[in-house]
Amino acid sequence: MLERLLRQLCESHGGWIEHCIVTHNVPDSPLVPPAGGWPFRVTELFNPRPAGFGTNHNRAFASCDTEYFCVMNPDVERVTAALWPALVAQASRPGAGLAYPIVLNPDGSRQDNERESVTPSALVARHLLKRPRRRIDWVSAAFWLVPASVYRRLGGFDEGFFMYCEDTDFCLRLRLAGWTLERAEVAVVHHAMRSSRKPGRQMAWHLRSLVRLWSGPVLRRYMAGLATG
């Protein structure tokens, strides 16, 4: 998936991509450049042991010297040349804190990357009662374009979340700081595995992250603001 994504980035960059940072979270061989070399700078980070989602992106941001910082999962595909100018246009809007594309499943259906705050009642409404969301409080971090100044001001991801809910926490802190989430009307495909819904290590990570989110101040402050706003 990573090789396919990198090939699409090379084909679609159109001068918009200046620097690609790839984190090898498990032991892996260095990337093999395409014939003619990379059309942008490539930095590879090799972890001696697996780190969490937020930690990996914060470490990658330490190498970011561009105006925008893109968070992208390796299982994203159908990245086209139209994507980058559309995302930059949304991310550069006054007050924008984060831009994101429409995200589709491999079968072409719309993925639920735009969601309400992850409260116990919202989870019941979504998973058990199958009710539609009432608003967009956060967006899945499968694909974001964040102004570097915003990422820096927020201090990046909260590394206390090893996996899951770090994107919820980031978006809520972003909204509390007065910035907006902006959707670009251009689509990509994301192969979401939904592993956190099956018994095992990833479900344990998800539950631990939910407890951290529910017991922390960010969600409480955000929901209080909705109640009084």
Can you put this structure into words, describing what you see?
The chain is of the alpha/beta class and 229 residues long. It has one domain: Spore Coat Polysaccharide Biosynthesis Protein SpsA, Chain A (Alpha-Beta Complex), CATH 3.90.550. Helix content is 36%, strand content 21%. The protein contains 8 helices and 9 strands. The strands form 4 sheets. The chain has a 3-stranded mixed beta sheet. Strands 1-2 form a two-stranded parallel ribbon. Helix 6 crosses helix 8. It starts with a helix and ends with a helix.
Distance between the termini: 43 Å
The second-level CATH architecture is Alpha-Beta Complex
Number of domains: 1
Main beta sheet, described? 3 strands, mixed
Keywords:
229 residues, alpha/beta, Spore Coat Polysaccharide Biosynthesis Protein SpsA, Chain A, two-stranded parallel ribbon, 8 helices, 9 strands, 36% helix, 21% strand, globular
Topology overview:
Elements lengths: L1 H11 L6 E6 L16 E6 L6 H9 L6 E5 L3 E2 L5 H9 L4 E9 L9 E2 L4 H9 L9 E2 L3 E5 H7 L11 H11 L3 E11 L10 H15 L1 H12 L1
Parallel strand pairs: 1-2, 5-9
Antiparallel strand pairs: 3-8, 4-9, 6-7
Helix pairs in contact: 6-8
